[in-house]
Amino acid sequence: MFNFKTLKCHHCSAVIFNLPEALANKLEGHAFVCDCCNHTNFLSNLMFIKSAACHTTYLFDTL
After folding, report:
1. Per-residue DSSP letter, 57
2. Over 3-60, what HEC string results?
3. Is the entire prediction scored with pTM above 0.85?
4. pLDDT for 20
5. Could you give the percent of the chain with pLDDT greater than 90?
6. Above 80 in pLDDT, residue 50?
7. Where are the alpha helices (H) located in 1-63, listed in sequence order?
8. CA separation, residue 57 to residues 1, 2, 4, 12, 38 (Å)
9. Could you tell me if 5 and 27 are in contact, meaning their C-beta atoms sit under 8 angstroms apart?
10. d(Cα 28, Cα 52) in Å, to the nearest integer?
11. Torsion angle of alpha carbons 4, 10, 15, 29, nearest 10°?
C-alpha cells in the first residue's frame, strides 16, 4: 500500500497535491504556486513553508 501525503497551501489551506510519500519526496526543494490564492509554497521535509522569492514549479510540469 501507498502512504499518501496531502499538502495544503501555507496561506489559504487549499489542497495543492495528494501524492504517495515516495513521489512527494522527489519534489523536495521545489516551490509551488497555489491555484486559489497565487501564494508560493516551498516544499521542505514533506511540508510547505513560507518561501522567499524563488523559482516556481507548476505541479504538472514536474510529473
Report:
1. B
2. CEEEEECCCCCCEEEEEEHHHHHHCCCCEEECCCCCCEEEEECCEEEECCCCCCECHH
3. no
4. 94
5. 40
6. no
7. 21-26, 59-62
8. 28, 24, 21, 18, 12
9. no
10. 16
11. -50
Of 51, 42, 39, 44, the C-alpha closest to 11 is 39
Coil, helix or strand at residue 61: helix
- Other C-beta atoms closer than 10 Å to the C-beta of 32 total 22
Question: Which 3 state secondary structure label does DSSP give 33?
Answer: strand
Q: Within 10 A of 23 (CB to CB), how many other CB atoms are there?
A: 14
51 has a pLDDT exceeding 90: no
- Asked whether the beta carbons of 18 and 6 are under 8 A apart, the reply is yes
